[in-house]
Design brief:
about 290 residues, 10 helices
């Protein structure tokens, strides 16, 4: 392990390449998480409701992140190892199932590429060490949460809460910020959106966001500290407003149709992770006394 660390420290390009490759591979697994985790949660909720009603559901085949084996949703063709190589398999198959030639969603290689490129950049940005390795995990969690929220408007506790605790644990050793800043960041992140939620509900009688958004911002605060929260909220709000207005105009969506806020929080968190200090410094320089 020490030799590997010395190798990556001496050859930063090798660490970037390895991180990119790892990001592509994990990105393929993230596609499974994005597709299956909401269904797993739904099955769990159904089972709990049935048990409370005294009518347990009949036994079914295991359904989790590992089983059953991935298959084409159109023909049931089991996807082999050579058909599951990140990005490359999609290009070789020309975006179609090997068996029935049904189209494969562009999302799968897009998630893989996003994961690979983001991980490669994080490796280059931080260099080999704990912050870089932690950043990879942060990126993977944000990608999974983004696409799950887009699909289901859910931000599962299965991801947000471990992400929060992991951020606090990492900052015991000042991976990104001192522990007091991380603790305050987690508290402030949750309370900031919690306050907005209740203010909006009192004024309109409607729920403007979900509790998952509170937990995600708390997790981001636990990783990056309370000082980054204003930047994260600003970035996510601006992007969310622009995208939301564009979607309403382009697709003629009504104002009452909910738009998930999680992807914008995740985007703001990623930007703050990689460029937060530089952006904050540039902003303060604008108002610095000459």
């Amino acid at each position: 392990m020490t030799e590997l660390a010395e190798f990556f420290t001496a050859l930063p390009a090798a660490f970037v390449a390895a991180s990119t490759l790892l990001g592509l591979v994990v990105g393929s697994f993230l596609n499974v998480v994005i597709h299956r985790l909401p269904k797993m949660l739904e099955l769990g909720w159904q089972q709990q409701c049935a048990e409370l009603a005294g009518k347990p559901l009949p036994a079914t085949k295991p359904y989790n992140l590992l089983a059953p084996r991935s298959a084409c949703p159109h023909c049931g063709h089991a996807i082999g190892a050579l058909e599951n190589i990140p990005v490359i398999s999609y290009l070789v198959l020309r975006g179609r199932c090997k068996s029935c030639r049904a189209p494969i969603s562009m999302r799968y290689p897009a998630v893989e590429l996003l994961s690979g490129l983001a991980c490669g950049y994080a490796a280059w940005h931080f260099g080999f060490g704990l912050p870089a390795l932690a950043a990879l995990v942060f990126i993977w969690a944000l990608i999974a949460l983004t696409f799950i929220d887009i699909d289901t408007q859910l931000l599962p506790d299965n991801i947000t809460l471990p992400l929060l605790w992991l951020g606090l644990l990492l900052n015991l050793n000042h991976a990104f910020v001192p522990l007091p800043d991380a603790v305050i960041g987690a508290i402030a992140g949750y309370l900031a959106l919690w306050s907005v939620y209740w203010l909006f509900k009192l004024l309109t009688g409607k729920e403007g966001m979900g509790y998952g958004d509170f937990k995600l911002l708390a997790a981001i605060g636990a990783w990056l500290g309370w000082q980054m929260l204003p930047l994260v909220i600003l970035l996510s709000s601006v992007v969310g407003a622009v995208v939301g207005i564009a979607m309403m105009i382009a697709a003629k969506r009504g104002r009452d149709i909910p738009i998930p806020f999680g992807p914008y929080l995740a985007g703001g968190g990623l930007i703050a992770l990689l460029w937060g200090n530089a952006l904050t410094h540039s902003y303060l320089q604008l108002f610095a006394t000459p």
